[in-house]
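Figure 2 data, in text form.
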Amino acid sequence: MRWAGWWVGLLCSLACGAPTPPPTPSGGGAITAPDGGSADAGAVEDCAGLMPAPPGAAVTFDVPANPGELCSTGAVDGQGIVAADAEPASNPLKRWFEFSAPYGSHVGSFESPEIFAQGKGFIGLYASGTAQPQAISVALWNSGGAIDTAPIPVGTAGSVVLGRSLGGGVISLSADASSLTARKHDAEAAEIASTTLPGAFAPRAVAEDASGAILALTASGTAIAGVWIDLAKNSAGQPFPVGNATSAGARPLLGGGVAVQLDGAWAGVMVPGEASLRPLPAWLTAAADPVPVRSGKAYALVPRTGNSVGIASAQGRSCGSVTFPGVSSVSVGSDGSVVGSMGASGCTKLVWRNLLR
């Protein structure tokens, strides 16, 4: 399948060396308590039961990447299937290799620019056909690398983005010459609701608030605008300015609200019905991504670089951090597993299963 340069400019091509053999993981990861002196009763209650035991031994495997490819991240579904990426230097499209316990060899593979782990499988964008621009669908891949259900057509290459939903599934945002459509997809990628707005839009990011409201971020040049969409009422508010940036991101927060990124930096939080950014919570400032863990009672704060994952309560209380030995970067799966990367290209993976379940 050819993607015809669809994602050129979206991801950076990086030169990587061959993977280096990993040391034998022996546990001993550090647990760090939060700064700020003695904890008050509220802090103790908010953080009770959220910090894990120190990381023990990890399972290690290698992603079968080609020379020059970079392995930057990993995702884990609710069944413990790990999807680890490999990005060709000459083509920014990601290939995903799937591994099941005990993670000795990969069991399937597929291509998608970004994926969202589900209870079972991974949802992402799927390109089909040879006509340009290519037709784009939302698809669910199973543990064998096959599309599990019929893909849902949503648009054409360059006009579709996916975003997070707190309750499973994803939100797709797509545009044509005269409209913008937001769709909610369930955990099997099936469309269950949609709303279309008239106008000219360039989708940049989307996320679903805990209330069910959808925040869509669009662009006109470098001007980023937001609009709140109510799928239940098939309605939307008026667009409002958010800031200026060449890229945007959105992440739903457990207690409500959507954190907004502009050019990779957190800019603030949007609340349904409001048209301006609220200040960013202090605990989120340094994190690359807040991943819900502990059955929705906490966040794992994935770092931009390094191997220390912060833990914050759903109320926004910083509870401490966990350091994972022997790796240079980490990602956190939907099942609470932690995947670390090591080696010159990041293609050697270490997995700590269910540590933050």
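Caption note: The CA atoms of residues 26 and 268 lie 40 Å apart.
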